[in-house]
Every structure is written in C-alpha cells, then in structure tokens.
Fold Alpha/beta fold hydrolase.
Amino acid sequence: MTTSAPATPAATPAVSFVGATGPALRTGDEAFDAQLERSMSAAMRGSADLGEVAATVARIAPGDLGSWRREWRATGDAVRADGDASLAAGHTVSARRCFLRAAEYYRQAFFFNRTDITRQDLLDDHAAHVSAFRAAVPLMTHHVERMEVERDGVVAAGYLLRPAGPDVPRPTVLGPAGYDGTAESSYLDQAFGALEYGMNCLVFEGPGQGGVLYERGLPLRPDFEATLTPVVDWLVAQPGVDPAAIVLLGRSFGGYLAPRGAAREPRIAALVCDPAQYDFAATIRGRLGDQAWQRLQDDDPTLEADLAGLLADPQRANDFRCRMATHGVATLTDYFRALATFTLDGLAGGITCPTLVIEAEGDFASQGQTEPLAAALGGPVTRRRFTAAEGAGGHCEGLGQFRLERVVFDWFADALAQRTGPAS
C-alpha cells in the first residue's frame, strides 16, 4: 500500500512480537518491518500464518534485498506445494488457505524487486502470486468473476467478488490497487471486509499497477477517470449489482486515484480517501525547496547530479527506482516531473458525492494533504483521524485494520441509506 511520497516513512513503535520458542516478527530494518505489518494484517484475514512469517523473517538479513526476495519465495513455494497436495487429496479448505497464504508470500518476494519491470525474477514472482490467488478462487465460498476491460489504450483487470447466495442487487465497493499493489493483493485490503459487511467488491488494477505494468508495460498515468469509467461500465452490467449504490474506496496511492476518478464519474455514490492525496506538485516543491523546484520546471540539466544524494542510501535508492519504473522513467528529475502531474487542483470541486477523508497519525502520505482536499470537495465531507494510541497509527492505519473497517463500512452504510433509503 505504499504511496509515492519521497520521504522515508515515520518510525513505528519498537514492538517485538515474540513467541515462547520463536523469533521476533521484526528484522531490524525499517522498510522490511513496514512490509511485515502487511503480512501480519494478512494473517487476520487467513492469508498468512504468523509462524510461517516469523520463520521467514529469521532467515532474512536486515537490509539484504536479495535474502528478502529469496526467503519469501522459498516460503511461498513450500506453502503452494502444500496447497497442491491438499487439493489433490480433496481437502479444499486446506488448499484454499495455502493458496491465499502463498499469494501473500510471493507478493512479499517481489515487493522490493521492482526497479526493472523486465527482470525475469520479478515476472516469475508476480506470475506465482497471481497463480496462487487464482488457484484459491474456485475454492472460495463466495462468487468470484474475473474482469478485464480495454478501451482507448487503457487496460484494467481485476475480480468481482459477491457474497454467496442469490444475486439480489447489493452495494458494490470499487477498490483500485495502490502504488505497489495488485488486484490480487487488494482482496485482503478491500474485498475481505466488504464481503463480511454483505457488499460486493470489485478489486482492480490499471496502468502502473500489477500485471498491467509488468505484463502489458503500461506505466502509471494521472487521469484515473480513463480507467474508472470503463470499469464502472463493465460493473453495472453484472448480476447482483445495484447501480445506484457504487462506492469507491481509495487506499494508499488510491487516495489520489479514487478522488481523481470520482471527479469525472457521476455514478459514484460515496467516496473514501485513505489517506487524502491532493497535489503531489505541492508535496515535491515542499520537499525539494523553491529553488530546486524552479530548476525542475526549467529543465535544468545539472539538477539530476545535485539530487544524486537522494540515492546514496541503498534502500532509499531502491524505493526511488521502483517508483521510476512504475512511471516509466529513468531519472529522478523525470520522476518528479511525472509525479507533479498527479493533482486534484481544479478538479476536486467536481466530487459532489459524500466523502470520508481519513488521516492516520504518523502516516507520511497524508501530511499536508487532508485539509486542501477537504476544502476543495464539492460535496459533504466527513473527516476521521486515527491515532497510535488506539492502535491505528501509521500508513493506512498500520495494524489497526479492523478499527478502520468499522469506520469505513459503517460510514458507507449510512451514506447509502441517506442517498437511497434504508431498503437499498
């Protein structure tokens, strides 16, 4: 769920999760530990096992990107093999659990390995991630249908998940992937909660995300409405979908993508931004300073060398290069120029549906973005701030995912009831 903000994430509290005989679920590396939180949250949704995670962590050297990839891949392969064995023996529940856990471990394997989207090991790990998730799909207890749409050079792919039972019209959550996300990993971040709350969920990826980036080579683009509109067109033609109750949940970089799409898509009944991502140009200018910003605007050829210090730390350099690959550029200056085009300035007023703007204490991605977005919206706004004291600090509320879902899905229900009446 990591966004493209160039700052280093705020430090999380020094908590160690230690079993009676097992290792701590911490590596001593801040970036690694931030990703471990995602697998811990996945465990709450049956898509990771804390013992498997801890055993994998014990084999990883802090800061060693090669060992990170290697050990997560090994764990993914072992758990996938377990799933295949269970399925062959007719044990479908065990197989489904294994496949979902393997999908999470494969995602971890390629997370820090995205600096070159043509790398064969990246493509192999992503393919394994997708394959494991799709192996779980026919074993799930709810309806799942794959989606792929293409229009005017834009490709979107994902999965529509609907609660088991008759196809009565239900509200549907649209869950776009984040900056480093995939449609498959969005099952955990978006669909799992929506299904428990009795809602459909369409999780999907577009340009710059998941297979659309790695397999089709399409980089991230700022005009998310070009992706969202054909996705909504496909959605309203599906069974069990109430076209008057389509809501949009943007998490991490989706906190920019979702409102950008909603500004041009009138069929969105309610919007959640977690967190708000209003204007990356202002963010970059604030971090580079006015002088460097002006040189960036002037295409100063000497600026690249002056920014080289940003790549001095290997982990930070890796982060930047992953982001460059996502945007289809090869230099820092081109990356900053590309990112500066991601703005809601002059567009947010077109969002007239009810909007919930979320901010979490210590979330580097929301700093300075909440108030500008809230002030610019053209419809009613609700604000919610989560804190570390309640266990929901950090990027996208960190480990406090059930606290987040209570707020988000209760708010969706209330917003839809006010719009269409309780019967909907």
Remarks:
- The chain has a mean pLDDT of 92.
- The radius of gyration is 21 Å.
- Residues 283-339 form one domain.
- The chain has 16 helices and eight strands.
